[in-house]
Write a structure and sequence with these properties.
This protein has 161 residues and is α+β, with helices and mostly antiparallel strands. 40% of the residues lie in helices and 19% in strands. The protein has 6 helices and 4 strands. A hairpin with a 6-residue loop joins strand 2 and strand 3.
Length: 161
């Protein structure tokens, strides 16, 4: 979906001021509330906006250890293993990948011992052949989308925008 300048401004506001009301967004953007709502509805319908929930810190929930666990899976068992991963609460994301493994998971844990327990649980899943774990030491670039939104908006505006 191509974004225009107004879409970009709306997304920026949603990212920077997620708790403001639609009325406040419309006021800041100097547009009618109905126009704002129609734009947001279109962005949701086209899959640009995928959620509106709060960002929650696993560390604040007592899980400060973050690791990326690569899983190698027996051929033909990817779906089965993926379903099993969904039952492990410490797995906060999982992706099918190319390269050195079949699945990449983002795992949080209370401490290194707990991380080891989670990894042992994963290696025992039917279809998992082996795992490889990388522990994150420090977040260098937090999850963000605003620079991408702005880049897409600039590209949509063309060379003079």
């Amino acid at each position: 979906m191509a974004l225009d300048a107004l879409d970009t401004r709306i997304l920026r506001l949603l990212i920077e001021q997620p708790r403001a009301s639609a009325r406040e967004y419309a006021r800041i953007l100097s547009i009618a509330r109905g126009t704002l709502q129609a734009r947001i509805d279109r962005l949701e319908r086209n899959g640009v906006i995928t959620g509106t929930g709060p960002a929650i810190s696993p560390a604040a929930l007592g899980h400060p250890v973050l690791a990326f666990v690569h899983l190698e899976v027996t051929q033909g068992h990817l779906d089965e293993v993926g379903e099993s991963l969904a039952a492990v609460p410490e797995i906060v994301e999982a992706f099918s990948t190319t390269g050195g493994g079949d699945l990449l998971t983002r795992v949080v844990a209370r401490d290194n011992g707990h991380l080891e327990d989670v990894i042992q649980q994963l290696i025992q899943l039917p279809g998992v052949v082996r795992t490889r774990t990388e522990v994150a030491l420090r977040e260098r670039v937090p999850y963000r989308l605003l620079p991408l939104v702005e880049s897409v908006g600039r590209a949509a505006a063309g060379p003079t925008g």
